[in-house]
Amino acid sequence: MTVDGERRAWGWVAHLREGGTTPWHEWTGAGVQGGAHLPGAQQLELLRRLHLAGRATPELVERVLGASAPGRGTADLELVGAAEESRFGPRPVDPADLPEDELTRVATTLIAEDLVAAGTPEPRPARYVRPWRTRYRLVGDPWLADPVREALIGRGRPPGGRGSVVLVLGRDLSTMLADAWTSRAFDDGCPPWREWLDPFTAGTRVPPRVDLERAAATWARRVGPGQVRVVLDPAALPRLVGVRRSLPAPPLLAGDAVDLARRVAGVLGLLVLPDRRAELLRGTLLPRLVGVPGAPLAVPDEHSAWVTDRAARMRDRLLRAGYPVHGDPDALLPRPVAPAAASTGPSDAGVLALAVRLLLGSSRGEEAR
Amino acid sequence: MTLPMTGAPTRRVLLHVGTPKTGTSYLQDVLFRNRRTLHAAGILYPADRFDAHFLAALDLMRLPWGGLETEAIGAWDRLAEQVRAHRGTSVISHEILAAASRSQVGRALESLGHGDGTEVHVVLSVRDLVRQIPAEWQENVKHRSSISYAKFLRQVQNPARESRISSWFWSVQEIPDILNRWGHDLPPERIHLVTVPPPGGARELLWKRFSQAFGLDGLDLDLEAERVNPSLGVPETALIRRINRAANRQLPPADYRPLVRELLAHQTLSQRTGSPRLRLPPDVHPWVRDLEDAWVTEIRDRGYDVVGDLDDLLGGPPPEADWADPDRPSEAQVAGAAVDAIKALLLENGRLQQEAARVSGELAQAHRDLERSYLRPTYRLRAKLVRRLQASRVGRGALKAYRAARGRNSRSA
Q1: Environment class of residue A53 by beta-carbon count within 10 Å: exposed (0-12), middle (13-18) or buried (19+)?
Q2: Which InterPro entries match (chain B) (predicted)?
């Protein structure tokens, strides 16, 4: 490491510690060594981006500087110009040239730590279970079924019981595909959107979580076809489960938000056991992501013919099997969506911006203030 | 290198951080099986299972590893706590620690007491790149990868190191960089390199070097290996790669490890020692030789403690005979390996069927015993009483009250 380069690098670290936003390639100041080793370029650039977006607390600053990106991937990189060109180790970089994905890797480890520290909301006290409730089970699209089931449990109407009617929830297949990926992202993480989606579109099966035909057939074998209903109209659902008050709609999330949850899930799996991970993702992270601006996910145009074909096949088979359908069976077919209203995939820049926003608003940061 | 281990008043930690494919599995096996003997000599090898330090390394480095990471949560802190509580010498060993970043190294050293009176030594066992490059490709294949040898070599030679495979390869194999990260805050005399002898040397020489480096000379240790990481030949590695391509999507990691990695690769195909060995292609030799020269010069200049000979890091010459390309193996040899693999799977399947039949027999016997207990007069009397009570409304109410009073809702009584 050259003496001038090293002093310049430590000067930049001090500048960033104080909230500075000057890029490394424009930085000309100098400073004294402020630690055992220089933090990596990824950590320093993430800190700069945090300052550009808001004001990071001193606690957050130190956490960023001490963080390491989880998993296999690029190691902590050195700043170009801070060290003599070495024949060993990864090449030094200008932090401004780093891909957003590299910065997000560091950010996700901090977000995961925040979630573990925050814990989950206190569980609601157990409600008196109504003995004469309507017996039901909710299956099908998990992103539709999960919040409804949770709300009904909260109202003293848990699912199951003798003679339950099985309600297979669904909506247009294009949205259900996004729902299936979203649901997995908030359970145990999953591959990126296109890596997950494209293999399905190369075959004939739809993801098991939203394969309404298979869900209905499975339950028909267990409880008899007469006990299975397909529900495509959300307005019909309260009556079918025996309530008058409306039931919650599924959380609407931007594609970038789901992708961030997916990435955080990967890191959380290194910090807590799988059940706890799902609780933290759904109970703590999800409320922070609902309402974040951004377009929801949509299936890319190149797969629209496949989706239409699969949806029509699903509709025809459900009708042929004779299950009562609540709502228009054509509701399974993809709806035309304005290009600006939906995103065909998360963007690295959008995910990083959201990660930065979460870190700046994290509860640990708030407490430090 | 001399580390007097017995009677040392100071707390000392010997941290063996790599590199892979340098006899580390054998060393860890010996340390684990002899931990009581070691403890009697004042040396702590803190492990309650043979892969305890692997789990601790996963935890320290936050590495996912086919689901094993769920067993690793908190493992590093528990390990460090045991080390800090021990007055004397402690040994930690796992080769994936070589990939730790500077901040992870800083956390590891601090947690072990560095800077707080504990003398931390870093040990790195090293082998020439001529052998390490094919060995690393084979390790990738044994960990579900289906990458071809040619593509692996291209990625490793790419100076940008952008791929997942190349960044990992260099993070665990580039000796000067590993020592930059692990030795950044340590004096050179506390960094010890153990070189793997060149091929053809005495088999026990490597152990002698390990023994010297870890101060184990004079201890009566059981050196019979139970866990080693044996190598495969060209057709055997090609076969595993084909199996990966065919079965990866269906075979979950928890099944892959015992069936493919252990049963097929380690227990079966590694026994086929007559097949061509995996080697570096002749055209890659000059590039590797330049790297090795640069590394040896650099390491000599830094003044580390070397157990063995730095010239061991200069790999042998290119193969004089025909080089066997694992991307285009002899199909007859692959078929031979495949027959051995099928035989092993059949035998294992037969063993499992016998095991299933035995367990099934035990279960049937348990059911019969249970039924006999149901036939006792007192049970029959109680069952009759319950049936009668269930036949009337008053009886059902009495039963309900009884069950509520008993405190559980079982209907078994």
Answers
A1: middle
A2: P-loop_NTPase
Contacts of A43 in chain B (CB under 8 A): 103
Contact A71 B62 (CB under 8 A): yes
Closest chain A CA to residue B73: A271
What's the gap in Å between the CA of B300 and the closest CA on chain A?
Answer: 15
> Could you read off the pLDDT tens digit of each residue along chain A, which spans 369 residues?
455 888 999 999 999 999 999 999 999 999 998 888 899 999 999 999 999 999 899 999 999 999 988 877 777 889 999 877 777 888 899 999 999 999 999 999 999 999 999 999 887 777 788 888 999 999 999 999 999 999 999 999 999 988 899 999 999 999 999 999 999 999 988 899 999 999 999 988 999 999 999 999 999 999 999 999 999 999 999 999 999 999 999 999 999 999 999 999 999 999 999 999 999 999 999 999 998 999 999 899 999 999 999 999 999 999 999 999 999 999 999 987 766 666 778 999 999 999 999 999 864 444 333
CA of A91 to nearest chain B CA: how many angstroms apart? 7
d(CA B246, CA B146): 10
Interface of A with B in 163-192 (CB under 8 A): none
Which residues of B are less than 8 Å from A90 in CB distance? 161, 167, 170, 177
Of residues A73, A89, A109, nearest to B164 (C-beta): A73
Neighbours of A233 (CB within 10 A): 14
With beta carbons under 8 A apart, name residues in chain B contacting A278. Answer: none
> How much is the ipTM here?
0.82
Which domains can be identified in chain B, with CATH numbers?
12-131+147-231+284-313 (3.40.50), 232-277+330-375 (no CATH), 377-413 (no CATH)
Inter-chain CB proximity B185 and A36 less than 8 Å: yes
Provide CB contacts within 8 A for A107, sequence distance 6+: A46, A352, A355, A356, A358, A359
| A99, closest residue in chain B (CA to CA) | B162
* pTM recorded for the entire structure: 0.84
Q: What is the distance between the alpha carbons of residues A224 and A319, in angstroms, rounded to a whole number?
A: 16
